[in-house]
Design a protein that fits this description.
globular; 30 helices; about 700 residues; 3 domains; about 10% strand; disordered C terminus; 20 strands; eight-stranded mixed sheet; Sec63 N-terminal domain-like fold
């Protein structure tokens, strides 16, 4: 086909010279503040020391637990843990046992340390899947998944759960898309004789949740609500010139707010000055100088990504420490003290920023031990700033005087979505340290991805309502069939929060979809011989029920086909492929450099389970793809290869490699329990777990914190 060319006209039409307006970047930042902020800034400082006086809602909650269940909703940092401490102390005096469930291993570790200090280490145990210490203690602190598994066991054996009180911390995780099902299961299965204390950030439908629990547990659930922050919060706006403004101003009645007039004028400018070009970090060092002048430090900066957290460190200078040699000396001595027993952490490439700039990065790409170092120094008031992803907003308690928000959206694993009111409250809940600050601040930094108007609206928006996240999976079905008939399972599903919500909405039972999903899972289990024609578990079904892992059937099929190796390093390698969470490029691996036993075992397993996996896919179930890359990584680590060499091989950040190892260890823990059915594989799994759970993946929290 011939391409036609058109001659340009010798006299083209003249077009107006409309080049895109040049973005103006702020000149040298000079600290300043609006006069409206003067009386607020005058309040900055520590409150007068006085004996601790519990708030009204705390006392009411302690009383409520004496007669029934209790759901406490209060802003982050308002002192909900104190309620649990009082209730647990009273239970100990009566000779009772307590279970304290948390969503995060880091929070579990923090609570464990606190309770050891408060009640004595002999009275406190910990269960996280990674750690098992003193499990028969009168107080057990653990992850919610462990509590759910213990409830499965209790239902199967017919024995009571060995506890007299359950505390569920961060109970709003009931609405978490990934893990909310575990919270809901615990609430459904927990015997009504055991009092339930739930501690939660503010939620939009606390009374609805209480009504549901009252209905299924047959005992009154009292809601104790506190909407007032223990430390008042003031949202601020950082103008690119360096001037601080109030973010909002009161408008009209009913607490309505609008943007402060000068902030509104800025965001409606046709060509407003900017702190930095798009996709570039703002001048962090200059921002810190302004914050220091107005005594807004220490601060937690919420960043968009891990890379931004690390990049922010490089934009800091040592000027903030220069005029405070005493604190600089104390910081350096404390860092030396903390890291002296941890050679790997002592060589961390961000140690310089910690010691000499008083700043640290905290995100999932970091080793758990390094994050504890950052948390410890932050809680001791030795850091000026911590750069963190928004995941740090939930759970772990290390508040600052200010939080800094650079983005009005948050990555949910698939896409960036606008911050919700609940997420905003979690983030700003870290601003203002109870007992250390009279006021706290949330500082908004203008930028391409920061919708200042959206943040202003969030300052007084009610928290979102929690909805049920319950769904059916094979582990749930296997464990329920250990002790229930399908008809009884139907009864349990009728007790779900999902059924309750649908019943209120439609006036009908509303569990048809859940029940249909259960029946499909049940039918597949029958088809593959894990369940018999009477809907009872076969012998294979019974041992498979103990595999409380993400892919129990695939791992179970490996056992049935005798595919798992008895060599510990190979066992760790194969299990790693099943827990891997991301796509890998196996083409980059030099297979010739790997032991033949590794590649041979991997290919044998992948080929062996392919027919089973295809059947699962045909039935509509998700199946993970097995990659060699994570298998080779864990093989090296389990074989004793030094950490840095394993890092170089896998190309992962330390935190991601640590997570892969910890997830592998958790799966190995469940396999090691199959001693009566697969004794050789169980022994190999136990030895493999021991081989991979070593420094720097496992670092003693007590060693780091000195608790």
């Amino acid at each position: 086909m011939t391409q036609k060319f058109h001659r340009r006209s010798p006299h083209p039409k003249r077009r107006p010279n409309r080049q895109p307006p040049k973005k103006r970047f702020a000149p040298k930042i000079k600290a300043g503040s609006d006069t409206k902020l003067k009386p607020i800034f005058e309040q900055i400082g520590a409150p007068e020391p006085r004996p601790f006086m519990p708030d009204r809602f705390q006392l009411e909650a302690v009383e409520a637990v004496k007669t029934g269940d209790c759901l406490v909703t209060a802003p982050t940092g308002s002192g909900k843990t104190w309620i649990a401490e009082q209730v647990i102390a009273a239970a100990l005096k009566r000779g009772e046992k307590c279970w304290y469930a948390t969503p995060l291993k880091a929070l579990t570790n923090s609570i464990f340390s606190r309770f050891c200090e408060l009640f004595g280490s002999d009275k406190v145990g910990i269960l996280t899947g990674d750690i098992k210490d003193n499990p028969s203690a009168p107080i057990v602190v653990g992850t919610t998944e462990i509590l759910r598994n213990q409830l499965y066991d209790a239902m199967h054996t017919g024995k009571d759960l060995k506890t007299d009180l359950v505390v569920m911390d961060e109970a709003h995780y009931l609405g978490d898309a990934d893990r909310g099902v575990v919270w809901e299961e615990v609430m459904i299965y927990l015997p009504a004789r055991i009092p339930l204390l739930m501690l939660s950030a503010t939620v939009g439908n606390a009374h609805q949740i209480a009504d549901w629990l009252t209905q299924i547990r047959g005992r009154k659930v009292q809601v104790i609500e506190e909407n007032r922050r223990s430390v008042p919060l003031h949202p601020l706006f950082f103008h690119p010139s360096g001037t601080l403004f109030p973010l909002v101003s009161q408008k009209g009645g009913k607490g309505r707010v609008g943007l402060y007039k000068k902030v509104n004028a800025y965001i409606h400018q046709e060509n407003p000055p900017l702190l930095a070009p798009p996709n570039r970090l703002p001048p962090i060092s200059d921002i810190l100088k302004v914050m220091k002048k107005y005594r807004l430090l220490p601060a937690i900066f919420f960043m968009k990504s891990r890379a931004d957290c690390n990049g922010a460190l490089e934009l800091c200078s040592g000027e903030l420490l220069a005029d405070d040699p005493a604190r600089a000396d104390l910081l350096q001595r404390r860092v030396d003290e903390i890291l002296s027993a941890h050679p790997h952490l002592a060589r961390h490439d961000q140690r310089y920023h910690l010691e000499h700039l008083a700043v640290g990065a905290h995100h999932s790409g970091q080793l758990p031990g390094w994050k504890v170092v950052i948390e410890t120094l932050m809680s001791e008031g030795l850091l000026d700033a911590m750069f963190a992803t928004s995941t740090v907003a939930a759970g772990v308690n290390f508040p600052a005087r200010s939080v800094v928000i650079l983005n009005s959206d948050r990555f949910n694993g698939v896409d960036f979505m606008p911050l919700s009111a609940s997420e905003y409250n979690q983030m700003t809940g870290r601003a203002g340290r109870r007992g250390k600050d009279k006021v706290g601040f949330a500082l908004m930094i203008p930028g391409k991805f920061n919708d200042i108007g959206h943040l202003a609206r969030l300052t007084n928006r009610a928290p979102e309502r929690i909805v049920s996240q319950i769904h059916i999976n094979f582990s749930m079905v296997l464990n329920l069939l250990l002790s229930h008939t399908p008809e009884q399972v139907h009864g349990l599903l009728e007790r779900s929060f999902a059924a309750f919500l649908l019943e209120k909405k439609r006036g009908s039972q509303g569990i048809s979809q859940l029940w249909e999903d259960f029946l499909v899972h049940l039918e597949f289990l029958q088809y593959k011989g894990f369940v018999d024609e009477n809907h009872a578990l076969t012998e294979d079904g019974k041992w498979a029920s103990r595999l409380r892992i993400d892919s129990p059937l695939l791992v179970g099929e490996c056992f049935r086909r005798k595919l798992f190796p008895e060599d510990p390093a190979l066992m760790a390698a194969m299990v790693a492929s099943f827990v891997n969470e991301r796509e890998r490029d196996d083409s980059t691996i030099n297979r010739g450099a790997l032991p033949k036993s590794l590649t041979k075992t991997f290919l044998k397993i992948r080929k062996g389970i392919t027919p089973f996996a295809r059947e699962m896919i045909d039935w509509g179930f998700e199946v993970p793809f097995l990659y060699l890359h994570p298998a080779a990584t864990l093989y090296l680590w389990a074989s004793g290869t030094p950490w840095n060499e394993v890092l170089q091989f896998c190309g992962l950040p330390e935190g991601d490699l640590s997570r892969l190892i910890l997830r592998t260890a958790d799966n190995l823990h469940h396999i090691a329990a199959l001693t009566t059915v697969f004794p050789q594989a169980a022994v190999a799994a136990a030895e493999a777990r021991k081989a991979i759970m070593r420094d720097p993946v496992v670092t003693s929290l007590t060693d780091i914190t000195g608790a």
